[in-house]
Amino acid sequence: MQTSESEAKYKYCPLLKTSDDKMKMCQGSMCMMWRWADDLKEAGYCGLAGTVRGR
Ligand code: SF4
User: Fold this and answer.
1) What element of type H or E holds 28?
2) Average pLDDT score over residue span 29-38
3) Is 20 in contact with 33 (CB distance < 8 Å)?
4) What pLDDT does 19 receive?
5) Are strands 34-36 and 44-46 parallel, antiparallel or unpaired?
6) What is the pTM of this model?
7) Which of 16, 20, 40, 43 sits in a 20 to 30 Å window from 8, CA-based?
C-alpha cells in the first residue's frame, strides 16, 4: 500500500510495540524498511510488505 509519509505515521507498524505491548505507528523514512515509491518522495510504503503491485 502506497501512502504519503505523513499518512503512514497514522498507520500501525506490524513490528513496533510500546513497553506496555501496544502497537506503535509507522516511523516513515526514519525506519530502514521504508521505501520511496517515486523520486519526488511524495509516496512510499513499508518494505516489509513486499514490492509494489499496481497502485
Ligand atoms: S516502514 Fe518501518 S516503521 Fe513503518 S511499518 Fe514498516 S517496519 Fe514499521
Assistant:
1) none
2) 96
3) no
4) 97
5) antiparallel
6) 0.87
7) 20
